[in-house]
Amino acid sequence: MILDANPSIARRGLADRVLRRGPLEAVATMIIAAGVVMLMQPFSLVLYSWSFATTLFGTVMFTIVSKVRE
Amino acid sequence: MNELSASSRITYRAVMVRPGVARRIRGLSDRTLAWLFITPTIVLLLAINIFPLLWTIYLSFTNYRANRANVPTIWLGADWYQSILTDPDIWAAMQVTAHFVIWTVVIETVIGFGLAFLIDKKFRGHGMWTTIILLPMMLSPAVVGNFWTFLYQPQIGLFNYVVAFFTGRDASSFQMLGDVRLSPWAIVIVDAWMWTPYVMLICLAGLRSIPDYIYEAAEVDRASKWRQFWSITLPMALPFIMLAVLFRGIENFKMFDMVNLLTGGGPGSTTEVASITLKRAAFESWRTGYSSAFAIILFVTVFGLANIYVKALNKVKSR
Predict the structure, then answer these.
(1) Pseudo-torsion of CA B300, B303, B308, B314, nearest 10°?
(2) How far is A11 from chain B (nearest CA, A)?
(3) How far is the first Cα of chain B from the last one, in angstroms, to the nearest whole number?
(4) CA atoms lying within 13 Å on the CB side of residue B96
(5) Does the N-terminal peptide bond of residue B197 adopt cis geometry, omega within 30 degrees of 0?
(6) Is B318 exposed, middle or buried (0-12, 13-18, 19+ CB in 10 A)?
(7) N or C: which end of chain A has fewer CB within 10 A?
(8) Among A27, A7, A36, A15, which Cα is nearest to B311's?
(9) How far apart are CA B80 and CA B296, in angstroms?
(10) Pairwise CA distance, residues B248 & B199, whole Å
(11) What is the pLDDT of residues B189-230, one digit of tens each?
């Protein structure tokens, strides 16, 4: 019986683990949600001013990362 | 030839009349034929959806006014966006919209799911009750807006008398549409009355899609009704509830007709939702560039929200 000390499945790098559709979509979703909350919150005009940029960034990011491999 | 059936003779004649066309169509690949069929739809979509969107984006960077089309257009960059995103009045309109969207979606989802849960029990006459409950959503928003204006009349309106009957207050002591505290709730009540049946219908579809054998298995395991509700009914109906929340959230974010008929944004600006502010800027002040920028901000928000909900929907469905 031969025991293989080096398994054939290669260990995944950090980029491989992070640059996948799931985590990136989750990040984009959180940015969109933050943008919408910023748009409608009644507390700070500064947050309201940055809401559109935030939502737009999140939406563009979501559109791009939804094309990334699973 | 005489031995051919009637349909075969028609086909034969059709081919014989235009042999060139028939040969040419027969020579096309499936892919080319598919493109031929979908090209009219794509052209139509480009003309009525994509072009107006791109044109609106362009106008949002200019000083264009639709009532002064001959005046030369000047490129302003992001000035309108900066103006809108630092304007306290627009910020207030967004808060009014948020109040309307959040409360209508919460009320419609809770009551709609509750009604669907009851209707799903298939009691005697449940079909008739389903039809009666569905009636409000079949009405035109213009009709609903008009007759609720009468219902809310402090002197002759039925609503005030019902409230007076249950609370003991004088019927003419309050105005649902004229009071700054009550008018935001008045539009919430009307929207909930009209669109709760729609949410109920979607939830009912979700509840009817749950197979009976799952409940039977739970009964065998001696799970209580409460446990069955939290562990079977709610999780399995959740994709449908999410769908209803998505539809109603987006629809109410751009709500215009009913609110315009009921209050016109008043009293003051207490019910001035974003779409009414947009309409005033576009067709009363004729600030087309400014209103285009505002429309793009609302569009991006709705598009972003739709992305979130579709992702949530897929996640729940894949469970």
Answers:
(1) -160
(2) 27
(3) 63
(4) 30
(5) no
(6) exposed
(7) N
(8) A27
(9) 11
(10) 8
(11) 999 999 999 999 999 999 998 999 999 999 999 989 999 999
For chain B, the three-class secondary structure string (H helix, E strand, C coil) is CCCCCHHHHHHHHHHHHCHHHHHHHHHCCHHHHHHHHHHHHHHHHHHHHHHHHHHHHHHCCECCCHHHCCCCCCECCCHHHHHHCCCHHHHHHHHHHHHHHHHHHHHHHHHHHHHHHHHCCCCCCHHHHHHHHHHHHHCCHHHHHHHHHHHCCCCCCHHHHHHHHHHCCCHHHCCCCCCCCCHHHHHHHHHHHHHHHHHHHHHHHHHHCCCHHHHHHHHHCCCCHHHHHHHHHHHHHHHHHHHHHHHHHHHHHCCCHHHHHHCCCCCCCCCCCHHHHHHHHHHCCCCHHHHHHHHHHHHHHHHHHHHHHHHHHHHHHCC
pLDDT tens sequence across B36-69 = 999 999 999 999 999 999 999 999 999 999 888 8
How far A31 CA sits from the closest chain B CA (Å)?
Answer: 10
Q: Which DSSP symbol is given to A52?
A: H
> Which pair of structure tokens corresponds to residue B153?
């009349």
Instruction: Give every CB contact of residue B163 below 8 A, 6+ residues apart in sequence.
Output: B169, B171, B174
Which residue in chain B has the smallest CA separation from A60? B304
Query: Mapping DSSP to helix (H, G, I), strand (E, B) and coil, where does residue A60 land?
Result: helix
> Do the chains contact at B300 and A55, CB–CB below 8 Å?
yes
Residue with tokens 């609720």: B148
**Residue pLDDT, tens place only, B158-183:** 998 899 889 888 888 888 888 899 99
CA B66 to chain CA mean position, Å: 28
A55 in helix, strand or coil? helix
Q: Please tell me which residue of chain A has the smallest CA distance to B93.
A: A40
ipTM for the assembly: 0.80
Output the pTM of the full model.
Answer: 0.81
Rounded-to-10 torsion of CA B81, B82, B86, B91: 10
B79 chain-A contacts, CB cut-off 8 A: none
